[in-house]
Amino acid sequence: MPRVKLTLEYDGRSFVGWQRQDNGPSVQAALEAAILGYCGQACPTFASGRTDAGVHALGQVAHFDLPRDDPPHTVRAAINAHLHMARQPVAVLAADIVGDDFHARFSCLGRAYLYRVVNRPAPLALEAGRAWWVARPLDAEAMHAAAQVLVGRHDFTSFRAVACQSKSPLKTLDALSVTRVGETVEIRTQARSFLHHQVRNMVGTLALVGLGKWTADDLRAALEARDRAAAGATAPSDGLYFVRAWYE
Amino acid sequence: MPRVKLTLEYDGRSFVGWQRQDNGPSVQAALEAAILGYCGQACPTFASGRTDAGVHALGQVAHFDLPRDDPPHTVRAAINAHLHMARQPVAVLAADIVGDDFHARFSCLGRAYLYRVVNRPAPLALEAGRAWWVARPLDAEAMHAAAQVLVGRHDFTSFRAVACQSKSPLKTLDALSVTRVGETVEIRTQARSFLHHQVRNMVGTLALVGLGKWTADDLRAALEARDRAAAGATAPSDGLYFVRAWYE
Prior knowledge:
Chain A is an alpha+beta fold. Chain A has helices at about 25-40, 70-85, 140-145, 200-210, 215-225, and strands at about 5-10, 45, 55-65, 90-100, 110-120, 130-135, 150-155, 170-180, 185-190, 240-245. Helices cover about 25% and strands about 30% of the residues of chain A. The interface between A and B is medium-sized, with 26 and 26 residues.
């Protein structure tokens, strides 16, 4: 039973999130149905991280054990054919055979996210559901400068969902950058792992800086408060993209 | 009654096309309903060019006569509010007051289109309906070189829909470029005006060059045949974007 590593793209709008749930369609259920259709056996899949409802992926990583010996390009093509037939907005970008000790979640050394804000007076037509619309001008440079307060090892309680199941609120944020590309403000971040809603809570708080309501000192005070109520609102899921996960 | 020029973005997937039709929702009907909701009167709108079902716009231009004297930013915000309430994937990017002799279609000096092809083995998840998926590798440089055969004044009968209502098949193509940006192949073209399906027929034929099935000489022969059957298939609407229209 070779272990297969899949790199996945999906449009989060159709799903209740990565994880199989009773209350609606999940990416995991769509993927597992396609794998079942291909190989005739139910194969549980494991992702590098769970994404929430509405969150997209450009390069989610998942693994499963394949009960046959097809070459990787056949695995990719067959799963894609089944996803396509089922009209699921999920695509396998790559399939690779990995060692039995590979685990998409536990072997993962880091994750990168992108958050897209479209910053213009007009609401979104083409990008609806795929970016956060902020009508008032954002100062991306001020956001970037303030964001550096969050880089490094901190107690991120102020940016953690109340429902977060992580044992510790201590995380090391490796990078957090804010850049403007035309009318889009792109926030990119990476870390070994993130707390639940951490990226969206950081973005929602950085928006306060971008709108001129907060200074970098206000952001630092919110971090040091270790209180979710001290930071800004959770940015919508629409703008969040799981970009990649990396391994040894 | 000031005349208002609107610059519009829309997602063509929801519509039977720009033009009001009996068989489904149109961009024009959505826009006119929003204008009616805002100003309380039915105001006919006129676009620089009709887009087909599934074709998107980044900068369509339309005009109408407004039966009141609001400043342009109020017009934009009010129409957008009504479009947004109706959950229509249409947005007014700009509203400008223009002279009474302005006509979005008849004053138009040129139109530009973008056609997006995603060229990769995996089907589209995030870009489904917003690009043409071509799995086999396309040679964008060969496409660009061959495309120059089509630039200039020609009889474009070979690239014209049978249903095209234009009086003459003679058109002057001002530019046609093909560039690769990562896994996306972007085809950009501009002209004073285009025949029905001309861009999609040019793209479908250029794809034959990109796949190595046709040479630039084959493309020239297809043009000179003045016969729709001599050129390639019509590329799907998914990848086509009306980019802008310009005026004096």
